[in-house]
Amino acid sequence: MADNKKTTTNKKKALGRGLGALLQDSPNKEPKDEVQEQARPEAGIYEIPLDEIQVNPYQPRTHFDKDALQELADSITVQGIIQPITVRKLSDNEYQLISGERRFQASKLAGLTMVPAYVRTANDQQMLEMALIENIQRENLNALEIAHSYQRLLSECELKQEQLGDRVGKNRTTVNNYLRLLKLPPDIQAGIRDKKISMGHARALINVEDVDKQLAIYRKTLEEELSVRKVEALVKALHEDGEEEKTISNKPDLDPVKKYELGKLQQKLASHLGTKVSLKMDHKDKGEIKIPFGSTDDLNRILEILEII
């Protein structure tokens, strides 16, 4: 019993010294000041004033839809911010956004003064890599923004394509398909950015080496609202090197879209008449149709189909 009593007394003395030490470290502070000081650790999730956060200079998204941003602001007004933004600490009361700029901008629209934030420590290169990867994975970037982000990760973060694929959860072929978008003409890149065409359309257009042909197919796609499958068929027709393409036109300056349409017409005629048909046209829209026949009976058959006899 004596030993137990002595142990209890020692515990109380130790506890007393612990509380005293805390009070002696900050004898003039109110309890709430102590809480505020502890609320600013180097890393973790906590509330940060919006006016202490700088925008992200490495932000891969270049366009924010105003209506969608307002809808998010309305949702934040009602529900609050469900997912914290990510920042890095530059100094006391100064932070820089890593990811979550839509939530950051929408919070301003909603009139918030504080936002929940996850603080990470990072140098400039690490911040760039985190910003690009987190935005690629979490935000609805268009295909061109993803392509630019991949290119920056390769060039500025000195990643190889295999490493990049591992970081973003994509295989090397997918990464390469995005990077190839950057080789398309500016007009087509703008179409991707503005969502006039999809990634599927763009991937088909990439396989056309001639810029004029690319633009011709792109314009036709917009004018006729062609599906991805139709654009792929159009590109495939342009690549055919067989006799069929030669019979359509030997003129290199014939509109590639017109060449494709002539090819389809030639196929329809051949199918309708049950025989091979040769259809030629030059760049002045002049040409000829040849319909071969193998016998008198074959000729009569064709003439009946054409309702000539």
UniProtKB/TrEMBL annotation:
Residue ranges, compositional bias (Basic and acidic residues): 27-40
GO-annotated molecular function: DNA binding
One annotated GO biological process: chromosome segregation
Residues in ParB-like N-terminal domain copies: 46-136
Gene Ontology CC, one term: chromosome
Keywords: Chromosome partition, DNA-binding
Chain segments carrying region Disordered: 1-40
Top-level division of the source organism's lineage: Bacteria
SUPFAM superfamilies: KorB DNA-binding domain-like (SSF109709), ParB/Sulfiredoxin (SSF110849)
Family: Belongs to the ParB family.
NCBIfam families the UniProt entry points to: parB_part (TIGR00180)
Name under which the protein is recorded: ParB-like partition protein
Species for this entry: Echinicola vietnamensis (strain DSM 17526 / LMG 23754 / KMM 6221)
Taxonomy of the source species: Bacteria, Pseudomonadati, Bacteroidota, Cytophagia, Cytophagales
